[in-house]
Every structure is written in C-alpha cells, then in structure tokens.
Fold:
Amino acid sequence: MVEVAFMETPEQLLSLARERGASDAEVYATTSRSRLVTFEGNRLKQLETVASAGVGLRVWRDGRCGLAVAYGPHDPEALADKAIALSQLGELAPVLLADTSPATWALPPLDIAVDALVEQGQATIASIRNRFPDVICNGEWTLDFDVMRLLNSRGLDCQFSDSSLSASVGVEWVRGDDFLEVGTDETVSPRQHAPAAELHPELWTSALARRLHWATRTLTPSSGHYPVIFTPNAVPLLLETAISATNGRYVAQKTSPWSDKLGQPVAASILDVVQQPSFGPFGTPFDDEGLPSRRLKLLESGELHALYCDLRAAHDLGLSPTGNGFRSGLGSYPAPGLANLVLPPATLSFNELLRACDRGLVVDRVLGGGGGLTGDFSCNVDLGFWVEAGEIVGRVKDTLVAGNAYTALKQITAFSSAPVCLPNAGGRTWAGSIFTPAIAVSSLSVTGQ
Structure:
C-alpha cells in the first residue's frame, strides 16, 4: 500500500483562519501518487513515479468568500493570510457548509508491481501486432493512489482514499496517404460490490482489431438524413447536453431549456439516466462539500425526474442538496457535477442493430464537443463507419454529422450491445464516467464533403 501524508494538519489551517477573523473556514486537501509505464513505437519508453500534494483554504469574512491554494511545501500562516486578503475582494456569499460527517468507504488498495504493468503492456502490444503487423502501438499504464480530506469549522471531517488502475492503447495505421488512428482505454477501481479490480486487455485487442477491420475500405457517403448509431465512445455527444440541462445551477439561472420541465417528457420513453456513485470506477461516497452521494434518477422513461445540485444551487432553487458539489481543482469553488451515469442495458446485439439500420452511419469518435445548452452540434466524424444492407462496408472520410441533441434524445429508437463490451454488463461499457450501450437515433444530417 502506498502511504501519502499531508504536510500540515487541516485543523491547523482552520485555527489560523479563525485567528485572522474568518467567521467560517473550510480546508480541502489532496495528495496523490502515480506509477506510470509508457510505451511508444511498440516499445517500452519510460517508467516514472509522480507525487503531488495540495491544499485549498476557503474562508468567509464579513460575508465575503475567499479561496487560497498552495501546492507542495508552503507556509500555513502565509496561506491563511492570503485567503483572508482574497476574501475582501470576493463576492458576498452565504455560508453553505455541511455540518455532519458522512460515511466513507473502506476499500482495499491496489498495489501492483511496475514489472506486472510492463508485462501487461508488452503482451497487449504483441497481441495486436500479431494480427496487424504493420501498425504502430503506443500506450500508457497508470496506477494511481489518491487521498482527499475535507474539514470545516462547522464540525465536518471526512476522508476518502482511493486507488485506480488505468490503461490506454492507441494504434496508428499508415497505408499510402491514408492515416488511421484508433484507440481504447479502461479504468478500474476497487469498490464495495467488486473489491477485485482487473483490466480486460483481451477486450482492447478485440475492440482495436474490429475497428481496423472495418476501416480496410474508405468511402465518402452521399449527403442526406440517415439513421445514426453512436457507439459508447460517441454517446457523450448527445448526453452532455442532457447533463448540462439538468444542472441545478443552470436551472436556477433560467438558462437551461429544461428549467420548467420537471415531470415532463424530454426524451424517448426508453431512456433512463441514473447516477450511481457506488458503482463503477469513478464513484465516491461523498461529494467535495462533504455531503453523501446517492443514487439519483435524472431521467426516467424519458421524463425529467430530478436535477443535480451543489449546496449553492439547492439554496437558490429552494431544494434539498443532492450531494453533487464537485471541484475541478483545488483552485475552484464547488459546482454541480455528476459521478457515474448509468444508461439502460442493451436490448439488441450490435449486429441486430446494424441490420435494423439497413443504411446509415456508425459514429465512433468526433472532433469537437456537443452543443452545450443550445443542443446544436455539427461535428467532423473523426472515426465512423458506413452501413449498407445492414453491414459495415467501410470507414467514412470527410464527413460531418449535425443535428440538435434535444431532438435526437427524443428520436432514440434502440439500445444495442457495444461493439466490444464488458462481460456481464448488459452490453454496456464505460465512456469516461458514463456506462452506456450503443444508441441508435432515427435521423440526423450527414454531409459528405
């Protein structure tokens, strides 16, 4: 087990802040250590260990809030002075702090030897090149150990230690003037329901080989409106708009189109979107404000069922907080965020969905993001495949897919197994922190340039 120690006690920083006139204070401290094994050009490139530590001190004085951050060795008194000084420049803000310490998880840490990571990387690359000897493989295996502690002047004191193992593999294939890059990745963490966390390298080989096989032929489709299948890699293009629209902060600001849609249909009736923090590699027992995270149905049978809120958004909306206050970094204030979104399991195999599509586009990766709160998107298809007579006939080039995510969510027709999915997962796999099958939409604009 990797041990990581804090440089000073959060209690010390709280005491210093109070001595300098803060009415309330909060300390958010993190430490991490990573072992990295990097491969480049089919060979082992680098082994390294990276450690970091930081602390954020948030204070309220005279009704104004200030946040100061320090990384590595630092002077606690100087940090407290800086937080107090910054509070005088901050906005007037209510003091919203949790006052009850939530339960945490007792998880067995991952502790894998670097030699084992090297062997796994070499075996994976060898397996890919046995099937496709002309490709160039790059990859990274990372073992992370993180500790977070949150303490405030209202009596909250909680800590969460987590470890994770992640791997990413990229394949480059050059044929004349045609360059193709495909990749896959996976992250696993010990969890209460699954203390043994293991990667599935055999699935990466299958996923990469399948994409390379589909890409043997290239074509440019004729422009028009066609059915579109989003593999899990591309599902965030649609779902990120729904995530933004259910953000309590945007609803409070009246910038979300779903601000007055609670209890109303907003998507196809087959769509459920549920946060399950205790499930999957990206979950957490509590948020970055010290509130317990919980199962939360955002969409149920296509209806808007709930919003996710941090303490500030819940206060502005007059709702109970949902335990969804997260920080993008030590220097940021908590904001509404989500942990582990789960979509329904597949009802069709991927081949059955292709046959039902007959003629259309499979989108695996796009250049650019989604439409945000507007929902409008127009993206280059970075990796996509054309379907004719219910079969994939080649990779598309110079192709755009466009539409509106809100409209597309209402036009979801089916969920199928991902082209390569995790075992016993209902045909689903992880796309970032979204656990999803492949999703079919009845019609989107496809433009061949």
Q: What stands out?
A: The first strand starts at residue 24 and ends at 40. The radius of gyration is 24 Å. The chain has a mean pLDDT of 93. The CA atoms of residues 4 and 358 lie 55 Å apart.
